[in-house]
Design a protein that fits this description.
The complex is a heterodimer of chains A (395) and B (162).
Chain A lengths: L1 H27 L3 E3 L6 E3 L1 H11 L3 H57 L3 E8 L10 E4 L12 E4 L2 E9 L4 E5 L7 E5 L5 E6 L12 E7 L9 E4 L11 E9 L6 E8 L8 E5 L1 H6 L7 H52 L13 H10 L1 H16 L2 H8 L1
Antiparallel strand pairs in A: 1-2, 3-4, 3-14, 4-7, 5-6, 5-14, 6-7, 8-9, 8-11, 9-10, 10-13, 11-12, 12-13
Helix pairs in contact in A: 5-7, 6-7
Chain B lengths: L2 H25 L7 H10 L4 H16 L8 H15 L1 H4 L4 H23 L5 H29 L9
The chains are: A alpha+beta (395), B mainly alpha (162).
Chain lengths: 395, 162
């Protein structure tokens, strides 16, 4: 028993030594060999043994490993693609908002360029979520330190937004045209209709459709739908010419002497993100023709001028025609008198210049009065009278 | 060990070897599970030390076939680990899972150090980092996986007590 155990231990030790030796030989095998000229590498015994193992015994395991790595790569790339898809979806979601904001900022930049001076740019922070609740006020990121005062007009690129109610040092609160306390003196583009704009109590056509009322328009003035309404500058709060909105329809009221119109505002308060606050100096000196009120007025005046010019041309043409007719009658009258005098043996009358240029023709006509008179009369007859009427007396 | 027991052991070792080439690349952990060490120890404790050394040599060559630069290092490490595991099998396969996990940890760490030293794969601080950080981590993960495998395959395994 002990002998068997000893021989087994020796066998185990011999096997261990043999395995260690084989392992050391495998480690010591050259990996690759260079060719004689040193330009190419040849496969060494180590690579040959490893390659033989990979192609035979280990081949199924290598195949399994390759498949697992493919799965991992596919899973990783799937995750990355999902991340890309998610990020693209988020970008697409934000793109609409960014485009809207970009458009607003571009318009505001253009408005600032046109205004040139007398305004304070500010960001509008909504106190309520735009999609729920009535937006009646905005928090603006500019205050009295920037020159903002109470009742300063707040405008956007599309038109009037509201007015400042409170001006703190670094921020201010603006009431919008949706606020029940809002009122602005307004007029039509051609200045034919004046009235006061108030917020309309009910929304029309959805949650964001704030409307205004133009009250106090004289009955004799009829405003068509689509007519643009501007601030009139009366009252001193808003300068003249800021777009308020456009006429939608007339509202039926109990008023007899005035009309009330429903006005669609030019600016949607829930979409306002950036505004300009006009300074008191700018309000005093006006904003000029920035929102296009003057353009409409100028267009009307130009049309009137064109119509007036057309009228004057017609009048002038009529006057010339009348003068020509009068000259023809005078010529015919003189010709009749001349023929009567000639038949009686008297000398004919000297020619009378009806065109106003007689002084220049007088010397020429003075040398041969009789011929000149006949020739002139004949010419007048030929120009102004019908041939049958001139020939009839001779026959 | 009868034929049934041998077949069961071969089956479990084959499953572990397949896991080495399927689950390990799929997980791709930095401190990865070494199912080959678990298979080596499970087989070695059922063999005589000499046979365990040969078994380790064969498993090592399978592992070395995919890493030509350190060809032979895994074979050397596994034959030593296998021989040691078979020599210590009475202790190794006690019914204490924590002890089994500890021996798995030691086996994996010893194997990594042999491969590291013989294979000349790292130098300086890198070798210290490998020996003191990554190898223990990998050994710990392997020990946990080995304990789980032992628990899972316990009904299939028949430990040789003689």
């Amino acid at each position: 028993m002990a002998t068997a155990t000893r021989s087994g231990s020796r066998t185990d030790a011999a096997l261990l030594v043999g395995c260690v030796l084989v392992s050391l030989i495998a480690i010591a095998l050259p990996g690759e060999e260079r060719s004689v000229d040193g330009t190419t590498t040849l496969q060494g015994p180590r690579e040959a043994i490893a390659g033989a193992l990979r192609r035979t015994v280990v081949a199924p395991l290598v195949g399994l490993q390759r498949g697992s790595e493919r799965w991992r790569v596919a899973w990783t790339s799937s995750q990355q693609q999902q991340l890309v898809i998610d990020s693209l979806s988020m970008r697409a979601t934000r793109l609409q908002g960014l485009q809207t904001e970009n458009d607003q900022l571009r318009k505001l930049l253009g408005l600032g360029t046109r205004l040139e001076w007398g305004f304070v740019p500010a960001e509008a922070l909504h106190s309520t979520t735009p999609n729920d609740g009535l937006v009646t006020s905005l928090t603006l990121t500019a205050g009295s330190m920037a020159g903002v005062t109470r009742y300063s007009p707040v405008v956007a690129a599309d038109g009037l937004v509201g007015t400042i109610r409170n001006a703190d040092p670094t921020m201010s609160i603006a009431i919008l045209y949706t606020d029940k306390d809002f009122a602005a003196s307004a007029m039509s583009a051609d200045g034919a209709a004046f009235g006061i704009v108030y917020p309309h109590p009910a929304r029309v056509g959805g949650g964001d459709s704030y409307m205004l009322e133009l009250r106090g328009v004289p009955t004799r003035v009829n405003l068509k739908p689509g007519t643009v309404i501007y601030t009139s500058g009366l009252g001193g709060t808003f300068p003249r010419g800021i777009t308020i909105g456009s006429i939608v329809q007339e509202l039926k009221t109990a008023e007899v002497w005035t009309r009330t119109y429903l006005v669609r505002p030019a600016v949607s308060p829930s979409r306002v993100t950036s505004v300009l606050i006009l300074s008191p100096q700018r309000v005093t000196q006006g904003t000029g023709n920035i929102w296009g009120a003057g353009t409409a007025v100028n267009t009307d005046s130009a049309a009137r001028r064109i119509a007036a010019a057309g009228d004057s041309l017609a009048k002038q043409a009529a006057k010339l025609q009348e003068q020509a007719r009068q000259a023809a009658l005078d010529s015919m009258k003189r010709a009749t008198i001349d023929s009567v005098r000639r038949s009686l043996g008297a000398t004919p009358l000297p020619p009378v210049d009806t065109s106003g240029r007689g002084a220049q023709r007088a010397p020429v006509a003075g040398g041969q009065p009789g011929q000149t008179t006949r020739r002139d009369t004949t010419r007048v007859r030929r120009d102004t009278l019908r041939p049958d009427s001139t020939r009839r007396p001779r026959t | 060990m009868n034929w049934t027991g041998a077949a069961r052991t071969i089956l479990v070792c084959a499953i572990l070897i397949v896991l080495q080439y399927t689950l390990r690349p799929l997980l791709a952990w930095r401190a990865s599970i070494d199912f080959m060490i678990v298979a080596l120890l499970l087989g070695s404790v059922r063999l005589r030390p000499g046979g365990a050394a040969v078994y380790g040599l064969l498993l090592g060559f399978v592992a070395d076939s995919l890493s030509v630069s350190t060809f032979g290092a895994a074979a050397l490490g596994m034959c030593i680990v296998g021989f040691g595991a078979s020599w210590l099998k009475a202790v190794f396969f006690a019914d204490n899972l924590a002890l089994n996990g500890f021996f798995l940890f030691l086996a994996k760490w010893l194997f990594d150090m042999i491969v590291l030293v013989v294979g000349h794969q790292a130098h300086g601080a890198e070798i210290a980092m490998q020996v003191l950080v990554w190898s223990p981590l990998s050994a710990a993960v392997t020990a946990v996986a080995g304990v789980l495998a032992l628990s899972l395959f316990k009904p299939l395994m028949e430990v040789r007590t003689a």
